[in-house]
Amino acid sequence: xxxxxxxxxxxxxxxxxxxxxxxxxxxxxxxxxxxxxxxxxxxxxxxxxxxxxxxxxxxxxxxxxxxxxxxxxxxxxxxxxxxxxxxxxxxxxxxxxxxxxxxxxxxxxxxxxxxxxxxxxxxxxxxxxxxxxxxxxxxxxxxxxxxxxxxxxxxxxxxxxxxxxxxxxxxxxxxxxxxxxxxxxxxxxxxxxxxxxxxxxxxxxxxxxxxxxxxxxxxxxxxxxxxxxxxxxxxxxxxxxxxxxxxxxxxxxxxxxxxxxxxxxxxxxxxxxxxxxxxxxxxxxxxxxxxxxxxxxxxxxxxxxxxxxxxxxxxxxxxxxxxxxxxxxxxxxxxxxxxxxxxxxxxxxxxxxxxxxxxxxxxxxxxxxxxxxxxxxxxxxxxxxxxxxxxxxxxxxxxxxxxxxxxxxxxxxxxxxxxxxxxxxxxxxxxxxxxxxxxxxxxxxxxxxxxxxxxxxxxx
Length: 460
Ligand code: SF4
Fold this sequence. Notes:
The protein is an alpha/beta fold and 460 residues long. It folds into 3 domains: 6-18 and 238-375, FAD/NAD(P)-binding domain, CATH 3.50.50; 37-125, Orthogonal Bundle (Fumarate Reductase Iron-sulfur Protein, Chain B, domain 2); 141-236 and 381-453, FAD/NAD(P)-binding domain (3-Layer(bba) Sandwich). It contains 18 helices and 19 strands. The chain has helices at 13-19, 29-36, 46-50, 57-65, 69-79, 83-89, 96-99, 102-106, 112-125, 149-160, 177-180, 191-200, 219-225, 254-263, 283-294, 315-323, 425-442, 450-453, and strands at 6-7, 141-145, 164-169, 205-209, 228-231, 237-238, 251-253, 272-273, 275-279, 299-303, 326-329, 332-338, 346-355, 358-369, 372-375, 379-380, 393-394, 397-398, 411-413. The strands form 6 sheets. The protein has a 5-stranded parallel beta sheet, sandwiched between helices. Strands 7-15-9-10-11 form a 5-stranded parallel beta sheet. Strands 12-13-14 form a 3-stranded antiparallel beta sheet, with no helix packed on it. Helix 15 (283-294) links the parallel strand 9 (275-279) and strand 10 (299-303). It is globular, with a radius of gyration of 23 Å. The N and C termini lie far apart (49 Å). The structure holds iron/sulfur cluster. The site of iron/sulfur cluster has 14 residues, from helix 3 and helix 4.
């Protein structure tokens, strides 16, 4: 039986190092000063409103122009404790930079993301004295489930407010998507863990690893034992293709592929097919496809069911994929996988078109040879806690109000597991922050009213 062409070590050590180096190198000091000068320091700056965490962008840019990089980093990190990671992964082209008034005058926004990275990199490179100090202890205990961006953001803010936080994490490392779910070239040199190490240095946060909700801990137990609970559990389930052959060798989840690659100490040990097909159109599809190319796959194709403008991945991400040799094919849905040799060797797609908003088959089919087929067709909430069955859901996610309060007393939720948002890291960070302030108020310490100013965006 011929074996599928899936193997590690397709490239030389130099090629791996080159392919997985920093995708978007930082600005030099001089470049940052020149870019900062392009900011108009707008009164009522639209870029601030476009930032889900409300970073005072003109303020931090002004501090960069004054060569006050620590001050700039403080303005960023006060609003967004993951300001360093968000500077790397935020789709700024549809957030702050899209709103920048320089677009009108020059068709080119101020490079806010790169400036944010310049300031935070300088700070994390040499943090010096602690930037944040915890308030006096309140004696209150907050349980946070999930050490991803939402959970860590909530934990940090709650700890700053003087509460004692216990963070329950199912894996062996903190970070969630920052550690397991992003393309390696977006966050090089262990930045995700360095940033979290700094975040935890504020104190007052104890992390317990290997603690899954529904197994080692249950929601009603946490609710009884703690003064407040925050759920930042993300989405643990992966949507299925609905084909009997989807468990065949060579077929996998893009999420697991990306996580495996991020945790591989040596890229040369990561197997990849010669021909890879990725089903889906979001950022996960792009990250899996581009990284397949960077591991040495010769032919990589993303297949999406609608046209490119409707792909969830931004234009920038789509161009990045194409720039890296990925082919994008549209208006096609997977009909069958060819696994007659005991492993996947090809896929058949049906062409579709849009009839009054509904996808209908055109009757035409096309085929693609494949050694690897990666599913990137979305995730679902996995709430495997027998005590949490009465927690209200909305559209398959935990229903929350503007402050992240769930239907259960003393229980808040945020990030991807909760309804209302675009599944962005930066929004998860804001959810955690808002929930921490809301918890603080519920515990009788009305010290912040941030939650009343920044509410969740209504999902499209
Ligand atoms: S909108 Fe653009 S020019 Fe105005 S403050 Fe924001 S970054 Fe500066």
